[in-house]
Design a protein that fits this description.
Layout: H1 9-19, H2 24-31, H3 45-54, E1 72-78, E2 88-92, H4 107-112, E3 115-121, E4 137-139, H5 143-161, E5 176-180, E6 189-192, E7 198-201, E8 204-208, H6 210-221
Parallel strand pairs: 1-3
Antiparallel strand pairs: 2-8, 3-4, 5-8, 6-7
The structure holds a DNA duplex.
DNA sequence: GCGTGATCATGA
DNA sequence: TCATGATCACGC
């Protein structure tokens, strides 16, 4: 049976600690679901499995996974040495109606205000079912970390407002980057053009670079 | 199409 | 080898 939402941060942490060390096949069996051969067509499978075990609110609403606790759940694939294998998706980037949007009101800040990180073995040579869940990390950005995030967010949003979204690459930003977030390269959404006129462009999302998430994990396990 | 969950796959 | 740009699945 799917877990009910946790009633407190401690309850959530305890649940997360209790699944640490298990393999994904063990957790899938408890959830009554099958383990895919690989994640090519099931990219969100690990995240959804852990949502089930921890009692995260389902759905595709732009809200924290644990609404009452204000906590966001992020699974993060790690290498044998404990380094993140992938960047971490944060949120879809707003491309219009953002002329006076401030960092304090941004989805990025709200999503990253309080995050429960759960490392999961992610090397592709490890069969999905054999991958182990790691020990959870409950994180709030430090003053310095939030400053870095704010700087990058403001730089990227400035470019968006100036109609330069199509000149933004993943190399912009020190810790936060803007990249496509779409079904495919034919997806289109509205954005500001260089003349201030509306254009159609690829939907984008904000992602955390791996060196940033690696530093978060290291600070907890050192 | 949007927003959720993310990882894939190829060029540099 | 690895990060960038592309992509997969689902609910609505």
């Amino acid at each position: 049976m799917k877990q009910p939402p946790p009633n407190s941060i401690n309850e959530l942490l305890t649940r997360a600690e209790n699944i640490a060390g298990y393999t994904l096949s063990e957790l899938a069996e408890q959830a009554g679901i099958s383990v895919p051969e690989n994640l090519k067509r099931n990219k969100g499978w690990v995240g959804q499995l852990l949502e089930w075990h921890l009692g995260a609110s389902a759905g595709s609403k732009p809200l924290p996974d644990f609404i009452d606790l204000g906590i966001e759940l992020k699974t993060i694939p790690i290498s044998y040495s404990g380094k993140p294998l992938e960047t971490t998706f944060v949120s879809v980037a707003p491309l219009t109606g953002v002329h006076s949007l401030k960092w304090e009101e941004s989805h990025v800040r709200h999503k990253l205000a309080h995050v429960l990180w759960i490392p999961v073995e992610g090397e592709r040579e490890i069969p999905v079912g054999d991958r182990h869940v790691g020990y959870p990390v409950l994180w709030k950005p430090s003053t310095a970390e939030e400053h870095q995030l704010k700087q990058d967010w403001e730089e990227l949003m400035d470019l968006i407002v100036l109609g330069k979204v199509e000149s933004i690459t993943a190399k912009h930003g020190e810790v936060l980057q803007l990249r496509p977030k779409a079904a495919n390269s034919r997806s289109l959404t509205e954005a500001y053009g260089e003349n201030g006129n509306p254009i159609k462009t690829l939907p984008r999302g904000f992602y955390l670079k791996t060196h940033f998430t690696h530093a978060i994990l290291k600070s907890f396990f050192n």
